Amino acid sequence: MAFSQKIKPSYTPKRLAVKLNSKGEQFVVQGHPWVFSNNITKINNDAKSGDLAIVFSKNKNKVIGLGLYDANSPIRIKMLHSSHEKVEIGAAFFKNKIEEAYKKRQPLLKTNTNSYRLLFGENDGFPGLIADVYASILVVKIYSEIWLPYLETIMPSLQKKCEAETVVVRLSRSLETSKQHKLDNGEVVYGVLENEVVEFVEHGVNFSANVIKGHKTGYFLDHRANRKQVGEWSKGKTVLDVFSYAGGFSVHALANGAKEVTSLDISKQALEIAIENGKLNHYTGKHKIIAGDAFAELKQLIKNNITFDVVVIDPPSFAKQASEIELAKKKYAQLAELGEKLTAKKGLLVLASCSSRVLSQHFFDINKNILNDASRGYKIMLKTGHDIDHPIGFPEGAYLKCGYYRFNN
User: Fold this and answer.
1) Residue 65, beta-bridge partner list
2) Is 327 helix (H, G, I), strand (E, B) or coil?
3) CA-closest candidate to residue 204, choices 107, 111, 110
4) CA angle 25-30-33, nearest 5°?
5) What tens digit of pLDDT does each residue of 202-212 get?
């Protein structure tokens, strides 16, 4: 079986000699994967996306790193290698990086789980590239044109490493309109896809993902460990899963013997998937759904004096840009306040954030201030971050934080 000809590059990358200012050089030496345009002092005039940037030190003219040039981003160079050590960027280099990433995932792959993130962008040395595995399907999401000249080299190594029978390519919005390739979003470039809805297992619980039309690559794998934990603490309980999407927390709770689970999401389509995901497992509890705006629906539940033994609030990112940080913090405070009112006596409130711009400490401080004001008394059971297949390679690579709060009364 061969890969589609569409992953063949239409452009042969050049080598660029690059010099940076002191600040840019400092970042590269420290191993940071981003070089911004305003840190570049010297570069070839005819640079194109995908060209190999060879970064020289300002004074000694020694190579301090290698990266890929991105003409369409303020992060002008995405670093692949930061060191004086000589390397050749090619098939062997990428294969070794994929091997390193796979080794980090080994503890997870020894559990009853066959869905995982094989490449987590910059954190695994592949800036702007994500590779997720769902059972025998590999989904590669490309966020930048820099990878187009290298797909033919990288894809076979990825496919062999995870033993995928099918490979699907997903494209970011900017890449969908790019004229530098012939790929379509959701295109099968290797093997055959019998059904775009793929079933997979997460810690013994069955799920499905639409690998062609679903968000990102079809599902959110980063919360896996938290979903497992919530499931274990939901036996015999009533559970509210807010911003439930495809029912990750809901389904783990049901599969672990929750008495009643309510999935709340603005998308009716997502809630239908949550119901179907539930049905992939054996459960005896009741699965209810509420379609609507989370803030409005939570206020209505409070008005109706309804409480739950376990409340999980896992919103989408509230701060996609720096200007939204303060508003995001207010929204997190609001959700903590609403969540506390909906959590029954001696209940568990789980609050999560995936906004990388809202720092972990700030998020936990917001929760602490709101819950202290509630005067109920509580114990912090856990504070968690990314699962093992989302390793953190640089500060901005960390975005996920989750707090578990058990009330005393």
Assistant:
1) 55
2) helix
3) 111
4) 80
5) 999 999 999 99
